[in-house]
Fold these 4 entries.
Entry 1:
Amino acid sequence: MPLKDLLRGTLRHFTTDQAVRTGVITAAWAAGASYGRGLRPRTAVQQAGITGVSATAYYALGTTTWATVSSVAAGTPGHRPGVRARLVAAGVTAAGGKVAEQALLPSSGENLLAGIAWSEMKLLSVSGLAGGLVTVSDIIAHEMFHRRRTPATTLALDLAMGMIMAGGTLARRMRRARRYGADDHLLVAVKKAKEGTALSIRARTAAVAAATVAGSAAGLTTLAITEQAGARGVTKGINAMARRDLGEFSDFLGHGVMFTGFAAAGVGGLRYVRRMTQAKQEVIEPGYSDPPTCPYVSSGPTSEVAFDEIGKEGRRFVLMRLSPAEIEAVMGGNAEEPVRIVIPREGTIEERAELTVRELIATGGINRAVICIASPTGVGYVNYVMAEALEYLTRGDCAVVVPQYAYVPSALALNKTREGSALQCAVIEAIDRRLDELLPPVRPRLVNFGESLGAQCAADVGWPDGVPLFDAVGLDSGLYLGVPFRSELWGEWLADPQTMTHDGRLLNVASSAELTQGERRHVMLNHDDDPINKFSYDMVVRRPWWMGTPSTRPPLVPRETIFRPVISFVIALVDLVNGMDTKPGEFRREGHDYRADLREALEKTYDLPATADQRDRIESALRRREQEWAERRLIARTGEKALRQLRDTINSWGQDMVNIPVDEQGSDSASDRLIDYLNARLGQSGSSGQV
């Protein structure tokens, strides 16, 4: 089929299929609603993405919903409702949906089914209004153009109706922003426009944002065309099997089949990403290629843990240990050799717990004053700032144990959290049994730690009873940063915080500054604007606890923002990305960045006092070391890439002019020599395996 005929047919379908037209106008409403403020600032490009995804989702929902409404309005299979029937159906759907929406107004304590019911009514009211506007557009077109009506005129009228829907949501947003005194950029733009003040927008930013909007629009259009073509094919097949035209009913089935296929494709894509991400963890990265020679860490000469079994983050962790000399330079006096242990994910939980005890004995960690069991994130990461701060505060008299349960990003490791929590509990209990064999004066303190998904695994050791369970497994205290929404202990806390406090031994604070020095307690530290702590998959259909009435919302949560199904969820997803918008060495007490809280939180929660001068030196050293490590990793990656490019270029000449041995695992001498050279030029003392 010629391209011209294809485009003409597509335009005709866009302007004749009532369900598709309703979906497009519903998408316009979603586009306007997508500008609601989230927990974290976002870029113009991110906003364009939110708008595109939200519009796409509501196009699909609006199309399917109106196909269903039209099928019911037709009454009999094989019939299609006329203008009057569609107008009545739209009015009943919009009004009935709105009434039911208000009757089912969600509360923070609602169950999932109630949230789904409310979201369905919200969708019905919006789709009904959009379907009514489509019908009004048809009436206007008939009255104005009669037989001269063309697809172009229909499209123009539909676009006008879409602008009405989008404009209505934007106007409501600005009214609420004025009411609550929000610093809203749309209000600023309107004010400057009224005053005749030019808005200063960088050309590059505007160009990128415009390109992203255009890309989102193109993507939506492509999806719509693909869905339409597939739905038409399915509809024809259904009618052929039935040997008659089933009317709106077959249209409904056609759209339903296509959207089910899109959902299945999304699930398959997610599984592929998971496999690829996990494979990357097994690659030895440049600068961390050689096993440690230190006997106080896993994979060292006294350890039975293999270097290639602990993943990228595990390899980084054992090679980044502070030395006693570095600790003494900051804290003064003498320092011990700190111990770092990483337990790979292979084996049963019981086997890994017993391996932990053997590693503690082999490395000398069992003799340290403080043993910290730090549950990692899904990818196996434990905050280096935490480990270093603990090593400074204890003057090296500590061991940090990291039991790994996954090698994929936390978003893909949510199905591993029960295993992670069970592993954390088993490791703690195994260590506690070993410590029971020691005399009380010699017994180390056993403390718990977790951040992000690791906080869920670590905190849920105490579920459902809280502190009594922590005491039962032998824990002295615990620190849990940015506890995710899926944590069962966090859920218990939200349900009944007064009961869960246990005489102040379980706390929830928004900043380390709220803590006082103390012993044997467990602290959940959650920033008010931390999206990890507040995100929930239920947000697709259910209003979260922190988006209740404006007067009940936590500080830093926008009071003017309205919860909308799907849209609020998409905004929250972007907030997750922006929650960890960090720079090496630049610590900020906001979002999901807890580095600025760590030293103080560890000092107060684990009762590890330091002088004011020592605190200042620790903070300075933590920032300096993080920046140095980031620079070293950049040097390593850049050097490895440069060497590979040089080798490939020389090989492409067909001549073996220079022998550049670069191992596929990045462990041979070429990259190491370049790293040593660059470190030397930077005045650093890098060496193979330590860069």
Note: The radius of gyration is 30 Å.
Entry 2:
Amino acid sequence: MEADKQNETELPQEVLLAELMSTLKEYLTASQLQQVEQAYQLASDAHQGQYRLSGEDYICHPVSVALILARMKLDVDCIMAAIMHDLLEDTETTFEDLARLFNDDVAGLVDAVSKLTKINFKTREEAQAENMRKMFLAMAKDLRVIIIKLADRLHNMRTISVMKPASRRRIAKETLDIYAPIAHRLGMHEFRLELEDLSFDAMFPYRKSVISKSIKAARGNRKEVVDKVEKLLIEGFLDTKFPGLISGREKNLYSIYLKMKRQGIAFNEVFDVYAFRVIVETTEQCYQALGILHNLFKPVPGKFKDYIALPKSNGYQSLHTVLVGPFGVPIELQIRTLEMDRVAESGIAAHWLYKTTDVAHDAQVRAHEWLRNLLETQKGSDDSFEFIDTLKVDLFPTEIFVFSPKGKIVKLPKGSTAVDFAFAVHTDIGMACAGVKINRIMEPLHTVLRNGQTVEVMTSDFAVCNPNWLNFVVTNKARHAIRNHLKEFKERDAITLGGQLLNAEFKSIGLNFDDVAPEQLQTFLDEQQIGSLDALLMDLGFGNRMPLLVAQHLIMSAGDEDSSIDIAKGKQSTATLNIHGADGMLINLGTCCRPIPGDKIIGFFSPGRGVVVHRVHCKNTREYKRKHKNWLNVQWANIVEGEFSSDIGLELKNERGVLAEIASIFSSYDCNIENIKIASRSEDASSDIFTITVRDRKHLARVMRRLRGLASVIKIFRIRN
């Protein structure tokens, strides 16, 4: 009786602590248990007076997180870090305090899972992105960071019902987008399933309720089938005297919902609500069990997957097969060893307690490799949003396996192209990729690869990384290698263009940039907080600084007051830049008016893009000149090479073979047709816009003159904006 009264007065945190210590006693030493109690006392005192939305003392949350990890038998440092994971964020406790009282590892783990609260972010999304980036950087050093974070998120999702509906939906979406896929990527199956179902309930409570009720109603109807399947499986193994443990499981609600949504079917059309698992002792027995099962029931063609020979990227191993069971119901079966099952359920956390300094479990090795590759692709980029986009792409891989000519297996996400394969082999191979053979047949570089194909990459010293590859590559390695190359290429272009602009500005006022003394230039760079001359020229090339104003400051610093007076009054620059074509990436020809050599042109600075060239009479030009002062005089160089797009309008009679005749004329004049747009059509005629490539105005005039002589051409004109 007294014991009952005592229990009634116990606080929730005391009950949780008792359960935690009881669980930890199973695998921690007495001295380690003492350390855990010390961590609890520190956290409890520090969180004193803080409460959750549910009304319970805040300390209940970190203890619950620690309990989740204790049931997975995580080490003592991880347990202590879980108990104290909110101290740096929500209390006055410092990193130094934790390092002094415990050790650097514990302090580092707590710091890694703490949000960046001391930095002011413009938006919630920016804060989330940067926090995620910080966490992944810490994960690369210690995988326990993400295990703690996932346990933290799991407990928050278990108690999310007290939050406002909008907050519930936002957090649930983030969980489905990021945390559940991370758990899947790290092989933590149980975490993933619970996170998905909890998020599903928070985002779509009505849909979850309907599916849940349907499953309960169907259990009785399908029990006969399930029981019969299980009985036949057990009898089949008993007959062969094979040591296999058979168990059935119900699929989680979210996976059923996704299948219904993806296939557009009703619940009563989903037959594989139940799946069966066969656990054996050795890898050899997995394949033996597969043979027994295929003798019992007919296998469904194309549904067998061998994840033992070719494990998933998260270390998951199992044999998957689908059989046609009683009453024609498909039976999904997984066959694996007890060891494989342990890894399948807990992933990187499966063997943490038994990890040694010399040997890491395969799942942990794969996780480290994934993180290393993910972070490697992000080197040189400080964009947190780009990191999140990359992460999301990387978290949803459906894998294929292809072969190199020497028989090496290369694992790629589904949808990968020949270019993805080239970069997967080596970045240098991808950069020099000029062609590809798939099963010994030449194929386009954008060809999507399929399982089992042999891919051979042809390289060339003259091959150039193509920006258009970004339109079809799917792997992060390829995408970031291409982006980084383009970024470097663009920066080199910007430096060159910036130098041209600054030189032109100085020449327009009768001076020479080379005459600026090095110390004067350095003074200017220091005043503007610019790291180097290249950085200055890059800013000019990208259109982020005006050459006129830079020239003004440099002239003033040189002491030439007379030359700087006119500039300081804000007069438009008289400098003229020669245009040799669409030079690199920073001389852009306006698509609204499509200037070609021979046209009178004008240039505008566009921040981040460089110089955009328009025809003088383009209607956008007048608007730009009225609103902005950042324009400059440009002219075509004496020698301009390349092909330029131009739009011409044609009113044509509706006659058989007209388009073929026009296409033939374009070809005879070395013009490529880039696009055809039908503006209007009647019974007798059509009005079409052709985008063609020409060398200059004279070339265009010759083509138009030839077309004007055709009987089928009613009218021809160049499109003007």
Note: The radius of gyration is 34 Å.
Entry 3:
Amino acid sequence: MEERHYVIGTAGHIDHGKTALVKALCGCDTDRLKEEKERGMSITLGFASILLSSGKKIAIIDTPGHEKFIRSMVSGAMGMDLVLLVVSAKEGIMPQTEEHLAILRLLQIKKVVLVLTMVDLVNSALLMKREEEVRTLYKKFFPHESEPKIFPLSSYTGEGISALKTYLSEEAEKIEGKSPGGFFRMPVDRVFSVAGAGTIVTGTALSGKIQKDIYSGKSGESGKSEESKEREEILEAGESGKTGGAAGVYCIYPEEREVKVRNIQVHGEDVPSAYAGERIALNLQGMEKAACKKGDIIAEKGSLQPSFLLDCRIECISPFSEIKHNQHLELLIGTKHIPCKVIFLEGEKIKEGESSLVQLQLQEKTASVFQERFILRNDAESETLGGGLVLDPCPSGRHRRGRFPLTFLEALENEGEEALLASFLKKRKRNFSSFTELKKRFSGFPKIQEIVEKEKISHLVSSDADNNTNSVFFTEENGSTFLFTIELNGDFFAILSEEEMLMRKEVEDYLRDFHKKNPYKLGEKSVVLHSKLFSSYNKNTYKALLKAWEEKGDFRFGEGFIALSDYKPVKDALYTKIANTLVNDMQKGKYSFMKLSDHFWLSEEKKRLSDVVASLENKGTLVKLDGEYYTLRKLFENLKNFSLEKMEKEGEITIDALREEFGISRKNAKLFFKATDRMGITKDRGFESARSVP
């Protein structure tokens, strides 16, 4: 199991000691800009790493506290798993303290730790008062959470720093962090150029894993790079999809521009790959700095779908202002900020504590995902009004109030994206959907993307769905849903397992009736079953379906027929009589092959003859030569082995050779050759009397 990573961040009012705290914890000054040094305040995000007592190194993000730089604060908070809310014991709670805490709640930051700084400047009575104030404020925004952890400390004297470090080390084992599964996604928070390296982008990975492109190297004497040679070796070995050496294809969204990752750094060290929850620097090959900007997203190709629209659930947190229909606000999502218009799908407005389903119409594209969190601000008033989560990252079009089925978004909200996939497949019923189609249709839905990622299907296969080893398993709140999958032309196709179960039952019912009416037959012809039950499927899809059933053992398959798995043809006295007659007559005739219609059969025997012959052929007792002509397997093998030996020694087998060895007639020798040609044992060279090796 791959290790989970997480990011620590700071929040709080300006001049309350966030940057000083980070320096005390890490020994690093995150104010890197000249203007920040001159003004003594953070303007943009600062980054550092902290070495915990466990030996684990994790990223820490220092956010600016001034209200003018709230966008930067939100950009940093998006990737945080634990936040140190910093409050000066000297000044106490200030406007940005409350706004930052409100933003943390809207973003659903899982862990908030309260830090009282500058305790060396206050007495014990005031310190106790401040502790009570921050505790009360925390419970206002997180009423259902347990009592917050409060750390009084001084970054100047070092008091309390050790205790906080110890706590962070302990929490490292408890914090869930971000899952390394799913597709890679990283909002860009910095873009810059380095001489000799080119364009560098940084950000916090929110999901998945990224690998550098090992094939982008310098050319050697041969004109091929070492990496190119390595690629050729891998491909020749047929292991390009197994080694993990070849990186995936990545794009810059929303422009969908493909990029190659020349190098990856985590905490200033070169690494071959990086994971969700890590602060990452990517060196992008052959790309100008202007081609990527803050707010863009680096993600796997095809995993996201840029859109001017977002269907969302929003919540108002402002005690002073409402969010209204058609209101123009600013959307802060990922590391991007976009002017937008709020279109209410129900009602006209919401006030503090209320929520509503809306569509956000954006002035520029973004590439979001299901359940991504965001903030809504009134930039003109410098006020955070609320926030919410994305339900549909790529709606089909603009919605009109009263004409859009809210149940669709409510189902997404309550049941999750798996329910969306199930709903889609239910509408298609028995029409198989390709994973390629589904991946494109549901870009922006991480769980669906993971389900339909064929390279990862082996991790999703379950044997619990009615003993269906071909089923992909995923869980909903109200139970379980399964996908029945088949493989066809290098892609996977799926329907809901409940539909497959109904199809399978129809086949079972049909075959049960067939066996009852045809007790001697091995089973129904596959082509007949296709025409009667699955005529809407092309032959390749039908064959893939049968193959899946065969692998599961649902039915028994033979040469061109299908039967119930537990069915055995009836072998009564009539069957025995016909079978014995065939075997005995063929033994007597030897290489004078038997034509079925030349034999005298009673009326009842004629009715069952073809079934008995098919049964004996399936058992390997009989071999069909051509038309109605059959022979015993052991006689056929004698002729075949002799022919193979002759062809190996002399290059051919002739009718004369067969006649000399076995006394076979020319007519019967020709029948034998027709059979061996059909089986690929011999090849007709254009001479009727001779055959060679194919």
Note: The chain has a mean pLDDT of 82.
Entry 4:
Amino acid sequence: MITQATIQQIMARADITDVVGSFVKLKKRGTNLLGLCPFHNEKTPSFTVSPAKEIYKCFGCGKSGNVVSFVMEHEKYSYPETLKWLAQRYQIEIEETQLNDDQRQALQVADSLFALNQFAQQFFTQQLTATEEGKAIGLSYFEERGFRNESIQKFQLGYSPEQRDAFTQAALQQQFNPELLQKAGLCNNRYDQLQDNYRSRVIFPIHNHSGKVLGFGARILTSTDKAPKYINTPENEIYSKSKILYGSYFARQAIDKTNECLLVEGYTDVISLHQAGIENVVASGGTALTIDQLRLIKKYTKNLTIVYDGDQAGIKAALRGLDLALEEGLEVKLVLIPDGDDPDSYVNKVGPAQFRTFVESNKKDVILFQLEVALQEAGGDAGQKAKVVNRIAESISRINKAEDFTKQQDYIKQCAALLKIEEAGLHNLVNKYIKDRISQQERRLPAAEAKVFEENAKQSQENEFDETTFTLLFKDELQEKEVARILLEFGSRNWDNGSSVADYIFDEIDESLIENEEVLRLFKVYQQEKKKGSFVNESQYFVHHSDQKLSAFAVSLLQFPHEESQRWKQEFNQATGYQSALFDKTYEEFIETLTPEKKEALLNYLQSEEDKTPEAIRSAVHYLKLKKIKRMLMDNQKDLETEKDPQEIKILLQTHEHLKKLERAMAESVGTVIIR
């Protein structure tokens, strides 16, 4: 793990304007920066960056965060990968915590494999583009497939020469370990001699989501029954076929923007579609989709469109892994390319525009398509039709997330009509599969976990609140967040007799008053760090916190409360006759245009505005105390309604009167509570 000291150094050096500006064209607007959001398609800029607060927010799609969350969202990196990316950008040496021997060895092997694969990719690319053999055989093959030079460079395609040990010798000269060469699948040992594993084949490097080469796919160029068409890298410390989708590194941003992932079978399908400008595409390698591959897709989008050949083999391949996709909550569609073509040949035949049109107009619901195919195969056989009913019911039962309930019911209705059976019967069968799966899961769980599972299942029933209670709960949450915001923005500010705003808040508010888990977590961490005396800037500490949930919560509290009105600027300009250029100035530049008298008046006004902060702080704190009193009143009222003992009733009535007095007194002190 990366040490905390290194993380702090990265956060101190990382400039959100610099990082975001390398992906988004930003223009100054007041104290903030504005640009087109990289996370959704928009024509009017709504993506705002605050250099002062070191956060960003898009007012179009709602995404927000700090410099780390931006890189994670934009590049689809994990938290450690993002830190390493930032460290490399700002030339910060990474220190890691002490690892045990096994961890250290595994890390060393992984680093060595990455280094070897990078060398191999460069070797194969050089052989393809700079040798006569590579140009005559490898490059001519790619050109025959219609691949342009920019596509060959983008995907780092290569060629392995016919010479038995050309790569092996080159790698050994660079001091790479022979055992490592075999582990990477680049060489094999025959008759006690190392030989190239991919000779006389064109090379397709396979990248991870950060662009590093994990392994290779090598295609033979001659027809033979003895050798396989493709040879792929064997499983090792960095390469796991079930966790990889070819082209994901090049497709990730396009998938994010289009909110759709096209899935094809082969490497050439991906490259041809990218070349045609259709970049939201990845390949499964022709194997059944795995849970890890589906979760990789889900990182980018919930909308999966499978684009496979229209022959029987293509249909069967498209339907493999369907149940897993449904369980993951993906919206799965199917497009079958006309028989005799694949995505590669079809896009080259009809062109990009017609290909897009074909895909959009030929999307089929994958469950309904599966049903149609199964019914055709069953024909008039009653036994086969019964199997189809069971198979479809099981598939529908996989759609088991609460938010997908309506979708599940729609499928039951449509499939019952196609099967010509009663809807209620199919519904019962689907429920049976759901119950059976739950029972199986419970049997595999320890007793305690099974109980939790059961309780979670019961949460599908909605709780009913009376209007008063609902309003109180909702308002409480907003006010709790307001106190948390005050803590972040003003916590270290002087309050009274040498104490700070944070001291005042923690003295006045007991943790029992806080019900929002995020607020409570922030309070606890704040108190811990305050005791250590480690705060320099509390808002930045939480914005850049290593706990991404806590960081995201802090960003949400500190988002841009006030935005500059372009309409106001325009109208004010027209009304006053000020030069328009004045309104393009920053606050600091604007101040310098004022006379000393007007500058003083403005500063006095700003100071008077700022002086309202203590009032807002007291108001927010007092509200939470008022909330406690209201809850005590509600509990006391419940006791009054059920109590039978006259003496106890008398005590409860006295308690009620006392609490009402406190409530009135507290309400007067609260005054108007401002909730953002």
Note: The longest helix spans residues 101-130.
